[in-house]
Design goal:
12 helices, about 375 residues, alpha+beta, Peroxisomal Thiolase, Chain A, domain 1
Amino acid sequence: MGATIIGTGKAVPAFKVTNHRLSQIVDTSDEWIVPRTGIHERPIATAETATDLASAAARRALGWEAGAGLAPTETIDAASIDLVVCMTLTGDAIIPSQAALVKARLGLPNAVAFDLNAACAGCVYGLATAQSMMAAAQAPGWAGNHVRRALVIGVERMSRILDWTDRATCVLFGDGAGAVVLEWRDGATGIASSFLKNTDDEALTLACGKNYDMSSFPFGDEMVLAGEGPDATAGPQADVSRDAIVHDDHARAVMGSPFISMTGQKVFKFATSAIVEAIGTALDRAGWELADIDAIVPHQANERIIRYAAKKLGVPEDLFQVSIGTAGNASAASALMALDDAWRSGKLHAGDKAIMVGFGGGLTSGAIAFEA
Ligand code: UT7
């Protein structure tokens, strides 16, 4: 018995930005971007809100609209959805949560809704969280919410946290949403195992600050820099400066910035070891062998990371779903969008054994092993 994916969907903005178009904005080129990343173009939301994208992906996963990679075999009743989890860094608002906005837009009267931030590993964390809530409700005497059907959505408008003058980051990311409907089925394997891990990112190799508006904050004189006495320059940076994580100029700069920053090579090194570790651990926990696996759906950060993982694991590259070419890195949405692609392209079939794997800021990593 297990939490089974019964529907998938994705939605991407209509506007596509090619590498050539980017080369007119920053000092970059198709010749640099394609071999380093595998990205040819990325969808960028010019008109769509995160709620628009997430709701469209969800409607497909629910079978309410055509275009699902995996359409549910029966029509899903809105009242049967018990949970909406949205993984996002770039939702439309802080309050309400992105999940609450989607729940209201779709009209899901019985769902409890909340957001989850595990950066680019969000897809895996979201599925593992929903699965855990479903499994917990099976325990005899369980006195919490009974979750039997969940909508798990990754949605990002990374374009809103990019510095479009920084070629090291603005060429990498894209916008979009991916969704699945997860259902507890007594006779099915579904998600067979999960592995979640956090590695401290003390050097803030991947970060994006929060720029609070402190202009009305009345206690500036009382703000104290850790161990340094009264802060004479209270303001947005003063709030950041009190954070325990800020201990050098680099940290102060990235945590005070509203833009994503990344020390690419360090994150690359982390990602290549994390992807291999997560796949191996999820397999071990499921009691499966790599040879049993029909498809691997990874976070889409860089095609080179996927190729490295294939080589290290000794499996053909085409075992992996690669969607980055036209999607870019859509952070928490990317692996769910790729999952929908995998169903649509015929890489995944009913009954297949598969792995979804993610890694990203935090530093987060993880994988789930599941039967499709
Ligand atoms: O989703 C979360 C997880 N994210 C990841 O896993 C991403 C991991 N990192 C990466 O994928 C790669 O590190 C990047 C694709 C981000 C960068 O590739 P790289 O091979 O590590 O390049 P680099 O940062 O070492 O930069 C090499 C050169 C530098 O020039 P110099 O110093 O050698 O003269 C950069 O300034 O490439 C330059 N450069 C660019 N040139 C043209 C950096 N970005 C660009 C650009 N266009 N867009």
